[in-house]
Amino acid sequence: MTFGWQRSQVGEIDALALDIPLQATEKTRFQATWKDLAWKQWKLLPGAENFSGKLEGSVENGRLTVEMHDAKMPYETVFRAPLEIEKGNAVLNWLRNDKGFQLDGRHIDVKAKAVHARGDFRYLKPEGEEPWLVFWRGSAPATVLRPGVTSRKT
Length: 154
Fold this sequence. Notes:
Layout: H1 4-7, E1 12-19, E2 29-39, E3 48-58, E4 61-73, E5 83-97, E6 100-112, E7 116-126, E8 132-137, E9 140-146, E10 149-152
Antiparallel strand pairs: 1-2, 2-3, 3-4, 4-5, 5-6, 6-7, 7-8, 8-9, 9-10
């Protein structure tokens, strides 16, 4: 006997581990690996196919490594047609502590039918200060974004 969800191949979760301290849930730790997951668009989350990756670390300090191949990403509120991804890779690292929040995107390389984007970024939100965002291509910042200010470096 098979169920409907078993007939649709939505990928494989190889490992999933959670350690949730009941008295300090902000210290939750996790580890997961998966291959070729797929889902439909849900609210602001775009749909995806052939999404593989690894998640490790904690709410405070972690890493997400992802890869996509031969996939369509429907995102009706942003794109007229699904974005067709030939190949995509990214590594996201985050750090959250009393000084604020930092998200680093490294080794981002997405090749789609109509565009090829490569580079890195850093989003930083220091506690009590305005956030900022920097994009890199190569070793120098390409664009620095702060609220109300945009500067370009070449």
